[in-house]
Amino acid sequence: MAARRDELTREATRLFAERGFHGTSMDALAQALGVQKGSLYSLIGSKQELLYVTMRSGATAFHAALDAVPERAPAAERVRVALRGHLRVVSEQLDVATVFTREWRYLEGAHRDEIVAERRRYEDRWRALLREGVESGDLRTDLDVGAATLLVLSAANWAYTWLEPGRDTDELADRFTAILVDGIRGYATRA
Amino acid sequence: MAARRDELTREATRLFAERGFHGTSMDALAQALGVQKGSLYSLIGSKQELLYVTMRSGATAFHAALDAVPERAPAAERVRVALRGHLRVVSEQLDVATVFTREWRYLEGAHRDEIVAERRRYEDRWRALLREGVESGDLRTDLDVGAATLLVLSAANWAYTWLEPGRDTDELADRFTAILVDGIRGYATRA
DNA sequence: TCCCTCCTACCGAACGGTCGTTAGCATCGA
DNA sequence: TCGATGCTAACGACCGTTCGGTAGGAGGGA
Lengths: 191, 191
Fold this sequence. Notes:
2 copies of one chain form a homodimer. The first copy, chain A, is elongated, with a radius of gyration of 19 Å. In chain A, α4 runs antiparallel to α8 (169-182) and α6 (109-135) packs across α7 (145-158). Chain A is built from 8 helices and no strands. Chain A has a single domain (46-182), classed as Tetracycline Repressor, domain 2 (Orthogonal Bundle), CATH 1.10.357. Chain A has 191 residues and is an all-alpha fold. At the A-B interface, α7 and α8 of A face α7 and α8 of B. The structure holds a DNA duplex (30 and 30 nucleotides).
């Protein structure tokens, strides 16, 4: 049941991703559903609520991807799996990922606080993953964990701007991991 | 002369960065200047034009930063200088950088085409920089230049979200460069 | 010095249109 | 019969933009 409501939230996510939250009117949304804009309010309480349900499904998807990272494994392997998971979410739910990383600032009130906290928690989990790698000796002891976290999260958060839906993201994640783990320096110039 | 107009574009950039283009009304802009909204139109032709001048100064700033990268120098050093330049622009002109990377899609018509081309050219210049590093032997011959470019541009483009204005970005750029060049792998686990 | 013209900046009011939202009523399948 | 879904019409607020008018100063010619 509530199939029509799902249709609405899906269409809303798509338009929010394409034109932005403020750039999408309830009227445009209604037209996409083939319906009068007043009719939308028998399916949803407000435009804000529409944004919120998108954000919630984004938060759920990204955290679920991190849940699949094995507790006991070499750090490089854990990074690889985490990056694979993140990029897979982005490519399989590109609109959700786009809205989640770009439009969260237009949430208001308690919903906003909640989503901001979820985003922060996601970053903290990544930071912990890298810190544990240093502590276990898998990663270099002089690694700047803060900078490394920033770097990998940048790659993850920027992916929605260039990732084509349906692309093989596992291989891509592995390439990123390879660069992160071993660096770009030429063999000949290694000190 | 035209001092008042500069004041307007500066305030517009600030508000576009804070609330987004569609989230900023001409009325809010006028209030920030202490003026009636109709009065803005003796200083600027349209809201679109206001967005465009911000985008232009962003494009100019980022390209100028890349111009300062030495032609003949080890690739790692060139990456370091380029990254320093980019992050310096972001921190010194945070609002401009924010609008440039986040609000460009709301430009319309020919202005949009122009700015999109500038953004693409900037990315191409980065890609060339890394490719030349491989060709000169400074960077590993098996480096995936596309993935490496994506990685470094992600870090650059995401910086506006976390960089605090006035922070020492040179040191930060060097830390990023160090990770990119040598990787995160622990010495003990090096193959 | 005076006058006239031009320019910049702003005013207050209004334009037609769109915004998100609400109310009351109709339809229809379960 | 009842809940889900949709309609039409309207609400007040706000949108970006245009308008005619005006204050004040700069510049130039007589």
